[in-house]
Amino acid sequence: MNKVAIIGVGQTTSEMVKREIFYDVTAEASRLALEDAGLERRDVDNVVLGEYDLAIGRTASHMYTIPAVGGFYRDEIRVNDDGLFAVVQAYLGIASGEYDITLVASTGISSEAPQEKVTNLQLDPFFHRPMGLFDQMANAIIDYVPFHSGPKGFIPHQRHENIQCP
Q1: 72-78 contacts, C-beta under 8 A, 24 or more apart
Q2: Is the pLDDT of residue 55 over 80?
């Protein structure tokens, strides 16, 4: 198994995200990472891109970002999830000996879409049903669990004697 290391990092500012198109921002971040590593695009064997299209509200955004980061005419892998999964994918490719130098890039701003709806959309046939874990449901579960125990159901604690189970 080959040794794996992160040798360069590039990050853009949030101000750039506000004024530039997303693939230009990704291109700048990859340029900065290559510069930090002392490499050029021609040194890269493959590109792994992590983009969570559901969360950012774009379809097939990798069609723009793969060429922008230097993935044109290179082996490229797109992970349709968070950028951390792209790092894992890159690690596996290098550790296996398939690649020597991999550029990992990720784009996305989770505030671009309501995360509750994104969670529901992942459960496609149930998109319009109130499923998925969101704040209100999580709080209800946290409040419910201490008062529910055993096969007989609701057993109130002393400080909650007046609470009744429906």
Answers
A1: 74/44, 74/45, 74/46, 74/47, 75/45, 75/46, 75/47, 75/99, 76/46, 76/47, 76/48, 76/49, 77/46, 77/47, 77/48, 77/49, 78/48, 78/49, 78/50, 78/51
A2: no
Q: For residue range 83-113, what is the model confidence (pLDDT) as tens digits? A: 888 899 999 999 999 999 999 998 766 666 6
Asked if 129 and 137 touch (Cβ cutoff 8 Å), the reply is no
Q: Which pTM was predicted?
A: 0.65
Structural tokens at position 72: 């044109």
CATH 3.30.200.20 fits 14-112, yes or no: no
Contact status, residue 16 vs residue 26, Cβ threshold 8 Å: no
